[in-house]
UniProtKB/TrEMBL annotation:
One Pfam family it belongs to: Toprim_2
Classification of source organism: Bacteria, Bacillati, Bacillota, Clostridia, Eubacteriales
Protein name: Toprim domain-containing protein
SUPFAM superfamilies, per database record: DNA primase core (SSF56731), Zinc beta-ribbon (SSF57783)
Domain of life from the UniProt record: Bacteria
Start and end residues of each stretch annotated as Disordered: 81-105
InterPro entries tied to this protein: DUF3991
Residue span, DUF3991 domain: 115-187
Basic and acidic residues biased stretches: 81-90
Length: 297
């Protein structure tokens, strides 16, 4: 247990695809600027007023149960989870029960969400289609965008939260407690499509839909650089035989695309990597295109 709790957090977060930065005497990440890592072993996120060690990080941000988080961290260190000494220590402390999944309360309207997404360049028709499909709403407490992920049984099992207030271009990001990362965020299944497009974030997926009017295909957002949601989707939909990886055009995104590309090609899928023609991600490219068109008028 001490091995798992003592995990070096900057190293762990880098392996998970986060961009770790050094700020004075602590570390943070580009993706979550309110996160503070002290002594490389403990974290605290001021926007949520919560923190802990490596185990609680995986529980909170990756949707892992206590036993799963311990197993993941021991594997990260190259240790066998079932070593006798480790088992005896684990039996002394009952594992914390996983938090039940619950969607945040819904606001009476989605005005702030719509205004925020329009500011990010998302077409009103795309915003409306996501709202009408139950994939998106505004939460009552903080006015966040709530992107709802539905499992194969049609029940909500995941929610990615995105703040509607960006400070210096970086706003709140996180998952609802108890979210299942293996579900991720998906568009409704399209039976006549044998392709799935894979993005890092729901806003990138919406940006692609804005850029490609009439987009008609299966698509999902991993909401991280872990491919569990893609693996589960392909297992549930064996008719899908092509994977288009539309991850960010940065080092973590491209390394993840290369890793996933090798994995799914070896499993017999046709794999294509599709990056935005310029800029870091699909939303940055969308806003660049729109600004270019405005200057040309």
């Amino acid at each position: 247990m001490e091995i798992a709790r003592g995990t070096d957090l900057p190293d762990l977060l880098t392996s998970l695809g986060y961009t770790v930065t050094r700020v004075g005497h602590y570390h943070s990440t580009k993706e979550m600027d309110s996160l503070r890592i002290k002594n490389r072993r403990t974290w605290y996120r001021y926007s949520e007023q919560t923190g802990g060690d490596a185990i609680t990080f995986l529980q909170h941000f990756c949707g892992r149960s206590f036993p799963q988080a311990v197993e993941d961290l021991l594997a990260f260190h190259g240790h066998a989870r079932d070593a006798p000494a480790e088992r005896s220590r684990q039996t002394e402390q009952a594992p914390e029960p996983p938090k039940p999944f619950a969607l945040p309360p819904r606001h009476t309207d989605a005005r702030r969400v719509c205004a925020y997404l329009k500011k990010r360049g998302i077409a009103p028709r795309v915003i409306r289609s996501f709202l009408d499909a139950g994939l998106l709403y505004e939460d009552a407490g903080h006015h966040n965008c709530v992107f709802v992920g539905y499992g194969g049984d049609g029940k909500a099992a995941f929610a990615s939260l995105r703040g509607t207030y960006d400070r210096d271009g970086s706003g709140f990001k996180g998952d609802a407690a108890g979210s299942d990362k293996s579900v991720g965020f998906r568009l409704p299944y399209v039976p006549d499509s044998r392709t799935v497009y894979v993005f890092e974030a729901p806003i990138d997926l919406m940006s692609y839909c804005t850029l490609h009017r009439g987009f008609h295909s299966n698509a999902l957002a991993l909401c991280c650089l872990d491919d569990r949601a893609l693996s589960v989707f392909l297992r549930e939909h064996p008719a899908v035989r092509k994977v288009v990886l539309c991850l960010d055009h940065d080092r973590p995104g491209q390394e993840a695309a290369e890793r996933m590309g090798r994995k799914y090609a070896a499993e017999g899928y046709a794999v294509q990597t599709l990056s935005p023609p310029s800029r870091k991600d699909w939303n940055a490219y969308l806003t660049f295109v729109q600004q270019f068109r405005e200057r040309g008028r």
